[in-house]
Amino acid sequence: MSLSFFERLNLKVAKSNVGKYFRLEGSGVRRERIGSKFTIEIRAGLTTFVTMAYIISVNAMIVTDSGGTCVCDSTPDDPICLTNPSYASCLADLKLDLITATAAIACLSTLLMGLFANLPIGLAPGMGLNAYFTYTVVGFHGSKGIKYETALAAVFIEGILFVLLSMAGIRQWLARLIPQSIKVASGAGIGLYLCFIGMQRSAGIGLVGGDDATLVSLQGCILDAAGKCEPGSHMRSPTTWMGIFGLVVIAVCLQFRVRGAMLFGILLVSVLSWFRGTSITYFPRTENGDAMFEYFRKVVSFHPIKSTLGKMDFTFEGSEIIVAMITFLYVDIMDTTGTLYSMAKFGGYMARNGDFEGSSAAFLCDAASISVGAFFGLPPVTAYIESGAGISEGGKTGLTSLMTALLFFISLFFSPIFASFPPWATGPALIVVGSMMAKSVRAINWDYIGDAVPAFLTIALMPLTYSISYGLIAGIGTYAAINGVVWVLKLVSGGRIVPDDRDLREPWNTEEFTLENVLPGWVQRLICRARGLPYVDPFDKMEEEDRVAREQEALKMMKGQGFSDAKIEVDGQDSFDGPKHET
Question: What are the transmembrane regions (predicted)?
């Protein structure tokens, strides 16, 4: 049977040096990524980009609220320059600078992740981190007393510290210390977090929103001039129903295994929303809508960074900036570690030692991107949970990231188009990806309270606190508290006071928690060289151990069926002498 064009293309690329470097299926290299094909990686990269594209405009909008390098000539009547026309003009130019900077750092950081870590993970300035940078550290229009330039310097130094921690393997140690139940729960928690983002108005379909009495409530309403729901307009918003339509389209396409289902749903809703004069248009006939449409009509436009490049001020005064730097550091550690390990679990390339191949390179790429982003004038860069959309489309290698990076590079010149995907178009994809990630709850040990309660708090607090790091902190803290008390009681009672169901607890696999499995590869190579021993990659070692285990299991099964002294083929190889059938 003749191969189709795409099958021939996949086979040719897999056999090329590119395919071997990225370990595509059929490349013939060790530890090739099963199921990875060139065309699938390209489609996955497209999907990841489209689900992340909103960050180009959203991040620029949020950071612009800090005032950036614009100088506010405050007056008693207008202390934060809300009505100052010259300040507003400066902010408009600042926003264009930040659009370019966001697309540029997303391109560069994602490219590094794909080339050096070979992972399908997209990076960009972090949602949540950018809000903390703007509204807590610098303040709206610089109202908090810490200058924008000083905050950038703090982010730059935090990135350098992050690089050092990654090179020393401390991040890997921290990740390994997280119990397995918390790791599994973090995937489900991030799924709910994604779903929550996708249901809000700022980056989703607007189905839920704030409420003075209950914090959140069902909305989907029509907003008035002040941004509040009009009375009696709940679930009457055309854009909310358009988002629900997109959600149904994506779900039905996935049900019938349509390739590119998420990408198709996002593009369909986006194109329908670009027509003016409709109730679902992304460009209403208002001053802001007209400005957005005029920018959209340019199609091709490149705006060089003028006011934010290299604007760092290392003059630290007061303790507030030190606190901010420490906060950036620990939030980055928890957020990025949780995201990377959850994506590895979701993508199916988590090893049985609790690590994933390319983790050290991934941490270094993420850490270096933070300092480069600060040089561009941006808050900390982090791995994006929206990468799950590309992984669910079949992305398994760094080629997915390279495609995403290429599209971010193109967006530098087509930013009017790529910055115009409405949130109700990308929101449905986030909701669907969230549902896919939530299925990991099946692997949680619900039978033992010491595992179940910490896992549940991890899942619940990620969306409820709008923070991956707070969820992890709550889960790890309660795990240590509950199981620590149980351990102390057992110790002081001489083993007489123990829970009846203690045998149901999830064992902590200390056998895999060794220096060999935790230290970065370059440190392991130095140790081996100092001892005069050859360096063995731990993932190669695990693969060989798994192969031997499969051989032994096959031999045991064959002997049980009355075979002896023949060849048994395991994984396509004549691995060992096995049985001939006895007659």
Answer: 98-117, 151-170, 182-199, 240-256, 263-283, 321-341, 405-433, 468-489
